[in-house]
Write a structure and sequence with these properties.
Layout lengths: L16 H17 L17
Length: 50
Amino acid sequence: MKKQKEITCTVEFTEGAIDRITDAFVELHYQIEDGIYKGPVLPKQTEETA
């Protein structure tokens, strides 16, 4: 197996980036639940499992 070269990456988030990324994941989650996209779906939470 060929050894891969290590790469260092630095990421800086602009103000509000974390909120926009979170919003995008939440929207994607609901689109998967609605069948728009395929993906893993978490089991529905009930009062007993929350």
